[in-house]
Amino acid sequence: MAEVAVRWPSRAAEGVRAYRLIAGMWIRSTMTYRASFALTVCGNLVLTGLDFVAILLMFSQVDALGGWTLPEVALLYGLSVTAFGIAHLAFGSMASLGGRVRDGSFDTLLVRPAPVLAQVAADRFALRRLGRAVQGAGVLGWALVAVDVDWTVAKVLLLPVTLLCGAVIFGSLFVAGGAFQFLAQDAAEVQNAFTYGGTTLLQYPPSVFGRDLVRGVTFVLPLAFVNWVPAAHLLGRPYPLGLPDGAAFATPLVALVCAVPAGAVWRAGLRSYRSTGS
């Protein structure tokens, strides 16, 4: 156990270094065509912003959605999309793992002197994905100005912690979904159902969903801690499902509970890999 405890930080540092080098290579490649990069980022900003346009159209017909006003729903949207955007930027390439497994190119990653997870996550690193996080942060900034929040030091500190932990929760889904592709190979859409589908679900207040669904995304797949629970604390609203006071500050623990099993599932999937046989 002592040896594992000593090796783990070294292995993690090695993975971070490998990720940084590979991502840097792809960023330099992208920035060779700066005009194309700028147009692509702008296109992503517009496309991702259509989700919020849909919310604006809804509020052009109603004053509240499930008892939540437009600035409050914008807060949910901003927290969810920004956290997802960070995770998508860092781990979005995990969706292509199934293709590598099918065509046998994944084998080349196994013989390189770098952690495989870092190589897969940084493969074809797309800086254009930054557009989603920027768009979400813009909506979040407007929401924070528009909502009526009784700010305290604890609430101010809760905001960046929530964004970071939300990114970890979504990142864990990307990693676990990537591991599932060792088994299914063509399971990118299954992964998307939990990642893209999850962030879309969280853009709306819990009061518009059935109690069983809210229970599932709180206790089974704890996406509620990405924004529903912290936002309820910020706004002084009751927690979903009557969670106890201070539940919003359990978000780091929830993120850890998601990250550790995701890492274990990844290692199990990697051990089960037997190549394509070709």
From TrEMBL:
Keywords: Membrane, Transmembrane, Transmembrane helix
Regions crossing the membrane: 37-62, 74-92, 133-151, 157-176, 213-235, 247-266
InterPro entries for this protein: ABC-2_transporter-like (IPR010390)
Keyword Cytoplasm (UniProt): no
Keyword Transmembrane helix part of the UniProt annotation: yes
Pfam families associated with the record: ABC2_membrane_6 (PF06182)
This protein's name: Transporter
Lineage: Bacteria, Bacillati, Actinomycetota, Actinomycetes, Kitasatosporales
